[in-house]
């Protein structure tokens, strides 16, 4: 398994070769401001005590309070959390929002816990980190396997400990607990806005064939948004495998099928395919919306998409990036493509601090110009330095952070 933090640092080194940011600045960005590992004792339903490992990495706050999700996954470890916090720093900078980068997590498979155990674990995480959190210090959000309900428990625990009533320390909360309208589809929608902004410049047709890896919140929302805008989803997968139909899949029927059978396999209007086959499917746009390290040196040469839109964090390794660049397959990078989620998280934080509530239309009307602006600035930088869009996005982000530090 590739170390995602080394991947992030390798990306940083490549950018430093194209534009001279000065050694001191790059050195500062090679280490987080702090990374903390804690043990969280939880009383289980059978009365026993189990100890879980929890993490928070605060990477850089030059632009504003640390911002970043908390993931619950059995493989969560410090290098993954550091990588995600690093990318988050850049993502906020690319999107042009006044926030820094952080990330958190717990090494746990939440499916193995009862609801009560999950709530006690979530509140336990907050108790261990309460002194470093706060609306002006560090603002967590949901990530893999964490939900609005979990954010509500965390916000409630934080309010109990500190008396903070703004609710602005956690974003991604349910609507009735101070959450923002539009947060659910925000990452997928932001990704679509970025794709739409760059579509013609990348030589894509008006109506595209799209392949999506991932059937969670981001992948599913993205698939529905592409279809609503006249494109067709020809293949989609979850962690077990996927389904393909060259004439386009009916996503609503597929959701029903998965509810009934627990899988995407044997869908009546589709042909079964593995995740490996899915990534190599001929299409206009490939959307990895699952986990890190999906396109590697081993399979990058077999990718047949015209363009890749990264909605997952770090789905392409640095070695694969080089292969795709040589093949002439543009990659719209994660720090640009999936920054819609953190942008709407920032909107939620802003609404909480001002005690306001914006409608979904207001949220999307504010999101669209920000995504267009970030996409066009990235495209321009890539052209200016004769490089790929990832390095273009890095240059946009690093210039903003460096300017602020100065």
Descriptive report:
This protein is an alpha/beta fold and 406 residues long. The chain has 2 domains: 31-169, Leucine Dehydrogenase, chain A, domain 1 (Rossmann fold, 3-Layer(aba) Sandwich); 186-337, Rossmann fold (3-Layer(aba) Sandwich), CATH 3.40.50.720. Helix content is 45%, strand content 18%. The chain has 14 helices and 12 strands. It has helices spanning 4-18, 23-29, 78-95, 115-129, 148-162, 186-198, 217-228, 251-261, 275-279, 318-327, 334-337, 339-354, 360-384, 389-405; strands at 34-43, 49-60, 66-73, 101-107, 138-142, 209-213, 232-238, 241-244, 271-273, 283-288, 305-309, 331-332. The strands form 2 sheets. It has a 7-stranded mixed sheet with strand order 9-8-7-6-10-11-12. Strands 1-2-4-3-5 form a 5-stranded mixed sheet, sandwiched between helices. Strand 3 (66-73), helix 3 (78-95) and strand 4 (101-107) form a beta-alpha-beta unit. Helix 3 (78-95) packs across helix 14 (389-405) and helix 4 (115-129) packs across helix 5. The mean pLDDT is 96.
In brief, what are we looking at here?
With 406 residues, the chain is of the alpha/beta class. 45% of the residues lie in helices and 18% in strands. The chain has two domains: 31-169, Rossmann fold (3-Layer(aba) Sandwich), CATH 3.40.50; 186-337, NAD(P)-binding Rossmann-like Domain (Rossmann fold, 3-Layer(aba) Sandwich), CATH 3.40.50.720.
Largest sheet, strands/sense/barrel? 7 strands, mixed
Backbone CA Rg: 20 Å
Widest sheet: strand ordering: 9-8-7-6-10-11-12
Q: What structural category do the secondary elements indicate?
A: alpha/beta
CATH superfamily (homologous) name of the largest domain? NAD(P)-binding Rossmann-like Domain
Helix content: 40-55%
CATH topology annotation of the largest domain: Rossmann fold
Question: Strand percentage, roughly?
Answer: 15-25%
CATH architecture of the largest domain: 3-Layer(aba) Sandwich
Poorly predicted regions = none
The tally of beta strands, per DSSP, is 12
CATH class of the largest domain: Alpha Beta
């Amino acid at each position: 398994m590739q170390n995602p933090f080394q991947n992030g640092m390798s990306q940083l080194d490549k950018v430093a070769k194209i534009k001279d940011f000065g050694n001191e600045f790059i050195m500062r960005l090679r280490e987080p401001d702090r990374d903390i590992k804690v043990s969280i004792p939880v009383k289980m339903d059978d009365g026993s005590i189990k100890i879980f490992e929890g993490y928070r990495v605060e990477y850089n706050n030059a632009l504003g309070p640390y911002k970043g999700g908390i993931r619950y996954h059995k493989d969560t470890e410090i290098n993954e959390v550091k990588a995600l916090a690093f990318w988050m720093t850049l993502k906020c900078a690319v999107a042009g929002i006044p926030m820094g980068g952080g990330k958190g997590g717990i090494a746990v498979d939440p499916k193995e816990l009862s609801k009560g155990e999950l709530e006690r674990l979530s509140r336990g995480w907050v108790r261990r980190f309460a002194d470093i959190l706060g609306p002006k210090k560090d603002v967590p959000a949901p990530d893999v396997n964490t939900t609005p309900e979990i954010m509500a428990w965390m916000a409630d625990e934080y309010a109990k400990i500190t008396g903070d009533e703004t609710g602005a320390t956690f974003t991604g909360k349910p609507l009735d607990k101070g959450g923002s309208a539009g947060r659910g589809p925000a990452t997928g929608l932001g990704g679509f806005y970025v794709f739409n902004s760059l579509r013609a410049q990348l030589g894509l047709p008006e109506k595209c064939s799209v392949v999506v890896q991932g059937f969670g919140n981001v992948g599913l929302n993205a698939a529905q948004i592409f279809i609503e805008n006249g494109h067709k989803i020809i293949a989609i997968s979850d962690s077990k495998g996927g389904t393909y139909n060259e004439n386009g899949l009916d996503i609503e029927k597929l959701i029903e099928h998965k509810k009934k059978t627990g899988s995407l396999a044997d869908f009546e209007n589709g042909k079964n395919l593995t995740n490996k086959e899915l990534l190599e499917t001929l299409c206009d746009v490939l959307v990895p919306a699952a986990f890190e390290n999906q396109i590697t040196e081993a399979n990058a040469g077999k990718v047949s998409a015209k363009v890749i839109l990264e909605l997952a964090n770090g789905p392409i390794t640095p070695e694969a990036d080089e292969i795709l660049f040589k093949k002439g397959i543009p990659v719209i990078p994660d720090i640009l493509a999936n920054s819609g989620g953190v942008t709407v998280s920032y909107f939620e934080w802003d609404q909480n601090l001002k005690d306001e509530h914006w409608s979904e239309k207001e949220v999307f009307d504010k999101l669209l110009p920000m995504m267009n602006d970030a996409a066009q600035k990235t495209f321009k930088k890539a052209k200016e330095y004769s490089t790929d869009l990832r390095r273009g996005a890095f240059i946009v982000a690093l210039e903003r952070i460096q300017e602020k530090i100065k």
